[in-house]
Design a protein that fits this description.
- With 704 residues, the chain is α+β, with helices and mostly antiparallel strands.
- It has 4 domains: 177 residues, Arp2/3 complex 21 kDa subunit ARPC3 (Orthogonal Bundle); 247 residues, Beta-Lactamase (2-Layer Sandwich), CATH 3.30.450; 86 residues; 111 residues, Beta-Lactamase, CATH 3.30.450.20.
- It contains 19 helices and 18 strands.
- The radius of gyration is 58 Å and the shape is elongated.
- The two termini are 102 Å apart.
Length: 704
């Protein structure tokens, strides 16, 4: 249940604009990576869309990766005519997305595990079981898709690990890191896989081109050879008829018996003819062999006779069926004119069964894969090596076919049905060439060869090559793990030893370093040993300094304790003095409370000023006392008097006068100015510096 819960979690939607833009671009790149495929041979394609899909899985998670996989792999349904490749690619993104970050950070390793454990079995089920593809094709597709998937995962890993994608996106997450072991793993696989992959892809493309060129060459050779054979066969029979014509004399009247006798003897010399007819210039049969033949044939209306009579041709070839109702008995008629002194006397026709041409076809074929068909101007089959076509049937080889033009009139014909898988179309396709037989006979020759034997041949080769590549990839995976572990293990051991190194040194633990055959690691180990010795010495010095500092602190603490006791005694005395002063101030305040004098006490150090209630009453602020600050007095002094007042205060503080005295105006609460007489005296410290100024004010407005 937890598996499906994780699978059905909705993707986060709080993506910044850069993340959204990159996601859209990667989805488009995934679709285009499948659209712009790399065709190896005979419908076997390498796709690169899963590179972008796996990047999405690594950055955005399995849900976005699955959505991207559905979009990008949908093109394979169009490309190959079935949804099963799409299902396999979607399962790939789900598998990698679920286990990435949970079980392993190694995307390449997870992808390799998927193809070995799930991908190849799914190909066997879908292609071999459901689509009923041949075993050799299923094996090839399984190995090809596994190699293709591992290659794409390798490219994705290199992009994710060595391009600063997260920095470009400004993703505020934990910094992406890659272990040294995984880095060595990826680089080792890349150095092994990329060259082998490149060589095999190049060889596959060149092999397919080479095979097609060889097919074209063989078809052209067979076409030329058959044309030469048919020409020789035709000339041989025409020459035989001409020689027969030389024995005949149609100028004598009533020469039927003589002509008939000669013809029967002549046919024994030329047994290749099944039947021979001699007709006069009116198209009437005057002799035939064998003589028992019915003479119901009317040559006068036949096109081939008219061509000979009108001197349109030196010979004719015509195809007809003589006994369709009784069975297959298709024949080819060859006729030559009988001419004497430029006068058309008649013609001689020889009949040959079409089986003669079929025998000629069989003797001309290079091997059993090639098929030869002869068709006439009406597109009827005259002779063929195909068992599925009867003579005189309409030739329909090019109907309902997707035609791929090559060169030298050679085409590749694939079934055009949209509901058929592409691999099935290729297996049932064939190469063909249609060309005229020669200028004298209005026949065409069609030579075809099925693609499947060629596909099976190259499939066998590349099953071996791709198997070697897949085996190489697996060995490379294992070797990379072992080698990287061998190289990284000393570093891991060094990391473990140096973790919490200060605490280990302070605890005086024994630190043991392993030697390494790698010079750099061994040098690093030596540096760590030197650093530990230096740290150990420094820690000893720090420890010694700490002990010394503790002694000094203890001594200083004792001194401070004595000083504190002295200060406490002094504070007690000061408090007693302050209590006496406070008592005196209270008595003084009590003594003058009945007068009209207001007391002020200015602390010159803090600039705080104490104003007595009488002082506040004189200014009219008895109900709303002003703050005990210097500006309470200075802001209310009349501007014309402030400078003189401050001058008198400074003169007294500097010791120029024994008592501060001044008469000035100050602002009352009601807004009017009143006249006051101010008098005060400062209190000085041992150094003679004034730190306090105390005085009184008296309202003298009435006297003014």
């Amino acid at each position: 249940m937890r598996f499906f819960t994780n699978l059905l979690k909705l993707p986060k939607v709080s993506l910044n604009p850069k993340e959204i833009l990159l996601l859209i671009l990667l989805i488009i790149a995934g679709y285009l990576g499948n659209y712009f495929k790399l065709t190896l041979f005979f419908g076997v394609d390498f796709l690169f869309g899963s590179i972008a899909v796996l990047i999405i899985v690594a950055i955005y998670g399995s849900v976005w990766g699955t959505i991207a996989s559905i979009i990008s792999s949908s093109f394979t349904w169009v490309l190959w005519g079935h949804p099963y490749a799409m299902i396999i690619f979607i399962c790939e993104s789900i598998f990698v997305g679920l286990f990435l970050r949970k079980q392993s950070q190694n995307l390449l390793l997870l992808n390799g595990i998927y193809w070995l454990v799930l991908g190849i079995p799914l190909v066997a089920i879908f292609y071999g079981g459901i689509l009923q593809i041949s075993l050799i094709a299923t094996v090839l597709i399984a190995i090809k898709q596994a190699v293709n998937g591992i290659f794409n995962a390798l490219v994705c890993s290199l992009i994710i690990n060595y391009l600063p994608i997260e920095r470009w996106l400004r993703i505020k997450t934990k910094k992406h890191t890659i272990s040294w072991q995984q880095s060595l793993f990826n680089l080792f696989i890349a150095f092994v896989f990329f060259p082998v992959m490149t060589i095999n892809i190049n060889n596959a493309i060149r092999s397919a081109e080479t095979i097609e060129m060889a097919i074209i060459k063989d078809i052209n050779f067979l076409s030329l050879a058959f044309k030469n054979n048919i020409k020789f066969w035709q000339e041989n029979h025409i020459t035989s008829l001409k020689r027969i014509a030389n024995y005949l004399d149609l100028t004598e009247e009533n020469s039927f018996i003589k002509t008939q006798a000669n013809l029967e003897n002549i046919q024994k010399i030329f047994p290749q003819f099944n039947e021979i007819y001699i007709v006069n210039n009116a198209g009437k049969i005057i002799a035939k062999s064998p003589y028992q033949l019915k003479s119901s044939i009317n040559f006068s209306e036949r096109t081939d006779f008219q061509q000979l009579k009108n001197y349109e041709s030196s010979f004719t070839t015509n195809i007809q069926s003589t006994s369709i109702k009784l069975g297959k008995d298709e024949i080819v008629n060859i006729g030559v004119p009988i001419v004497n002194n430029n006068q058309f006397l008649g013609a001689i026709f020889g009949e040959l069964k079409l089986t003669k041409l079929i025998n000629l076809i069989e003797t001309t074929k290079i091997n059993e894969d090639f098929e030869i068909t002869i068709i006439d101007q009406k597109n009827r089959v005259i002779a063929t090596s195909l068992d599925t076509i009867e003579p005189l049937e309409i030739f329909t080889l090019y109907e309902d076919k997707k035609i791929r033009n090559l060169n030298n009139n050679v085409v590749h014909l694939l079934p055009s049905s949209p509901n058929l898988p592409a691999i099935w179309k290729w297996e049932n396709s064939f190469y063909a060439q249609t060309s005229s037989l020669n200028n004298d006979i209005d026949f065409k020759i069609v030579i075809q060869i099925p693609t499947k034997p060629q596909i099976d041949y190259i499939r066998t080769i590349y099953i071996k090559n791709l198997s070697i590549m897949l085996f190489t990839a697996i060995i490379a995976l294992i070797a990379a793990m072992l080698l990287s572990n061998k190289l990284v293990q000393p570093m891991l051991r060094l990391t473990q030893v140096t973790t919490d190194l200060p605490q280990k040194i302070l605890a005086e633990e024994e630190i043991i370093f392993d030697n390494s055959i790698v010079a750099e690691i061994d040098s690093l180990t030596h540096n760590f040993k030197s650093m530990i010795l230096a740290l150990n010495q420094m820690f000893q010095e720090i420890k010694s300094a700490k002990n010394s500092l503790e002694e000094r602190v203890e001594k200083r603490t004792q001194e401070l304790s004595i000083t504190n006791r002295e200060l406490e005694s002094e504070i007690i005395k000061r408090q007693e003095i302050e209590a006496i002063l406070r008592e005196r101030e209270e008595r003084y305040e009590l003594a003058i409370s009945g007068t009209n004098d207001g007391i002020w006490d200015w602390d010159l150090i803090t600039n705080q000023v104490y104003y007595s209630p009488t002082w506040m009453r004189i200014l009219g602020y008895e109900d709303q006392p002003l703050p005990n600050i210097f500006s309470t007095w200075s802001d209310n002094v009349h501007p014309d008097s402030l400078l003189i007042v401050m001058s008198d205060i400074n003169d007294h503080l500097e010791g120029k006068t024994d008592v501060y005295q001044n008469t000035h105006r100050i602002k009352h609460y009601n807004g009017n100015y009143i006249w006051i007489a101010s008098k005060g005296k400062c209190i000085r410290n041992e150094q003679g510096k004034a730190y306090r100024l105390v005085g009184i004010i008296t309202d003298i407005t009435d006297k003014k």
